[in-house]
């Protein structure tokens, strides 16, 4: 790891200034991804600003929403009673993430900024458009079993790794930030970016902009939600495919629904097309299957990841059958 | 339990030999024949970094096993390297150095973390417990005793991390069933696959209350 200057911020304004002033600076919270990236040389920084001293760990009730501080740890948010009761999909996604030790360390804000597990991205001996723009994408014609089939471009097919982010997009979360240009509220669906021509840009944050918290709106759908993560071993592994669903049924009819997917896309992937198939219709096997087909419409399979297109439809079917009590 | 009376040059042990071999490799001498593990050279480099006391190093205080320890480290030094290479607390093991194996698990303010994924400078003002801090004199911690009773290790490389995680898993109350223990111990990998014995040891230790 290349050495760097270390600074500890005492308040958000300090943190923003200490990073904003220096192009090579970045924040550190849990450090569970950043330090690996720096050890691997996939990222280098000449200043690290420690934000762990900021008072941003609270989980509190607001008017119609739950507010989660950006420095709340994954373990604490996953176990929090209000999160388990009002946002089960979020709690389940968190408890299916990483390992207990990492969940004790990693922050909610940092989780949203973790970088892809694409082996070419992490290996500085490989070309990678995300790491070195213009150098090429070896994954497209290479080893791509873990890669995305949706939201891809000719420049990058790396899958987004976060379970939490998939669950948050399914509950209409809002990202709260504090940056050099003041405070912002960013709807979760606008936060992450598909690679397009600029795979190095993964979200809309500007340099020095700090995530300070999340707002989770309390809704009937969020309260009846579920996360299913399928992986290559029973636990402590990234998703091959995952599904986050939030469902508000009136009788047998879908009043409102959110469907989001992980492992198959370059960013936390919400399918409004699949939701539209279900909304206002009776929830049964036929409509569930139609929603699955809509969710993968336009998917682009590669040599090793075409199986995800079937797998994710089956995963969605299982979640909606369970959540909706459909036999 | 830890014997801190030993001075560095008193004995040649496996790790002092490895350290010497690694230092030679850094100096550019063809010392590959003396390095027995593929990762030893990298680990020796990290050790050299951890030992660096150039101007970029900063003075810090780490509270480890109840003792305040003063040291100077560069900001890039992980808690794991500071414990092992600077404080000679080599009970905490360096396996993957990427947060994937759990061998480096320690408790910070009572919570288990992976010490390879955090910087020493970030862990001042915390109470750090390593495997050396579990026993009270010759009295082993119940988890240590249970690991011996159940033969819950083979090579021992993962064992201190398994024990630290097991202490935490019992405190957290995640020992209701073997499935629950397996899930909540999943951050600790055992390449010898001593898992059945580890699970049995955790289950057994969970029944005991420490006096």
TrEMBL record, chain A:
Any Pfam family hit: FAD_binding_5
Domain FAD-binding PCMH-type: 1-221
Keywords for this protein: Oxidoreductase
InterPro entries named in the record: CO_DH_flav_C, CO_DH_flav_C_dom_sf, Diverse_Substr_Oxidored, FAD-bd_PCMH, FAD-bd_PCMH-like_sf, FAD-bd_PCMH_sub1, FAD-bd_PCMH_sub2, Mopterin_DH_FAD-bd
Superkingdom of the source species: Bacteria
GO molecular function: FAD binding; oxidoreductase activity
Annotated PANTHER family: OXIDOREDUCTASE, XANTHINE DEHYDROGENASE SUBUNIT C-RELATED
This protein's name: Xanthine dehydrogenase family protein subunit M
Native source organism of the sequence: Solihabitans fulvus
Automatic annotation (TrEMBL), chain B:
Protein name as catalogued: (2Fe-2S)-binding protein
Pathway: Alkaloid degradation; nicotine degradation
Signal peptide from the UniProt entry: none
InterPro entries: 2Fe-2S-bd (IPR002888), 2Fe-2S-bd_dom_sf (IPR036884), 2Fe-2S_ferredoxin-like_sf (IPR036010), 2Fe-2S_ferredoxin-type (IPR001041), 2Fe2S_fd_BS (IPR006058), Aldehyde_Oxdr_Iron-Sulfur (IPR052914), Beta-grasp_dom_sf (IPR012675), TAT_signal (IPR006311)
A molecular-function term among this protein's GO annotations: metal ion binding
Entry superkingdom: Bacteria
Keywords annotated in UniProt: 2Fe-2S, Iron, Iron-sulfur, Metal-binding, Oxidoreductase
Domain 2Fe-2S ferredoxin-type: 58-134
PANTHER family the record matches: OXIDOREDUCTASE WITH IRON-SULFUR SUBUNIT, OXIDOREDUCTASE, IRON-SULPHUR BINDING SUBUNIT-RELATED-RELATED
């Amino acid at each position: 790891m290349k050495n760097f200057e270390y600074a500890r911020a005492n308040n958000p304004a300090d943190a923003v200034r200490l990073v904003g002033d220096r192009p090579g600076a970045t924040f550190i919270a849990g450090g569970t991804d950043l330090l690996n990236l720096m050890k691997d040389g996939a990222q280098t920084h000449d200043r690290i600003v420690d934000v762990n001293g900021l008072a941003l760990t609270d989980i509190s009730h607001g008017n119609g929403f739950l507010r989660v501080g950006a420095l709340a740890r994954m373990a604490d948010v996953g176990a929090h009673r209000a999160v388990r009761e009002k946002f089960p999909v979020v709690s389940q996604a968190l408890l299916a993430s990483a390992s207990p030790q990492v969940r004790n360390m990693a922050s909610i804000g940092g989780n949203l900024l973790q970088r892809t597990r694409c082996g070419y991205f992490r290996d500085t001996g490989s070309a990678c458009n995300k790491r070195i723009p213009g150098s090429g994408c070896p994954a497209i014609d290479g080893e791509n079993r873990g890669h995305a089939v949706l939201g891809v471009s000719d420049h990058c097919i790396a899958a987004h790794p976060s379970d939490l982010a998939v669950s948050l997009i399914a509950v209409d979360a809002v990202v709260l930030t504090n940056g050099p240009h003041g405070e912002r509220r960013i709807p979760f669906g606008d936060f992450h970016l598909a690679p397009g021509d600029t795979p190095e840009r993964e979200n809309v944050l500007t340099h020095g902009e700090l995530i300070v918290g999340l707002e989770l709106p309390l809704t009937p759908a969020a309260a009846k939600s579920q996360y299913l993560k399928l992986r290559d071993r029973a636990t402590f592994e990234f998703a091959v495919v995952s599904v986050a669903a939030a469902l508000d049924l009136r009788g047998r009819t879908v009043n409102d629904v959110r469907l989001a997917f992980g492992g198959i896309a370059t960013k936390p992937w919400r399918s409004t097309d699949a939701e539209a198939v279900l909304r206002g219709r009776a929830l049964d096997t036929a409509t569930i299957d139609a929603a699955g087909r809509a969710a993968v419409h336009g998917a682009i399979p590669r040599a090793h990841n075409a199986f995800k297109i079937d797998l994710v439809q089956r995963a969605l079917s299982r979640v909606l059958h369970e959540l909706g009590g459909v036999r | 339990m830890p014997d801190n009376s030993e001075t560095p040059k008193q004995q040649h042990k496996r790790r002092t030999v490895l350290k010497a071999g690694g230092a030679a490799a850094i100096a550019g001498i063809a010392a590959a024949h003396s390095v027995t593990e593929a990762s030893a050279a990298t680990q020796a480099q990290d050790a050299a970094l951890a030992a660096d006391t150039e101007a970029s190093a900063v003075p810090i205080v780490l509270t480890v096993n109840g003792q305040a320890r003063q040291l100077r480290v560069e900001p890039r030094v992980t808690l794991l390297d500071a414990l092992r290479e600077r404080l000679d607390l080599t009970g905490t093991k360096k396996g993957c150095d990427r947060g994937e194996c759990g061998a480096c698990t320690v408790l910070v303010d009572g919570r288990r973390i992976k010490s390879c994924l955090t910087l020493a400078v970030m862990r001042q003002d915390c109470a750090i417990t390593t495997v050396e801090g579990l026993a009270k004199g010759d009295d082993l911690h119940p988890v240590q005793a249970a690991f011996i009773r159940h033969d819950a290790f083979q090579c021992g490389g993962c064992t201190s991390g398994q024990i630290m995680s097991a202490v935490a898993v019992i405190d957290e109350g995640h020992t209701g069933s073997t499935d629950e223990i397996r899930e909540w111990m999943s951050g600790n990998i055992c390449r010898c696959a001593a898992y059945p014995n580890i699970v049995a040891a955790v289950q057994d230790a969970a029944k005991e209350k420490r006096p």
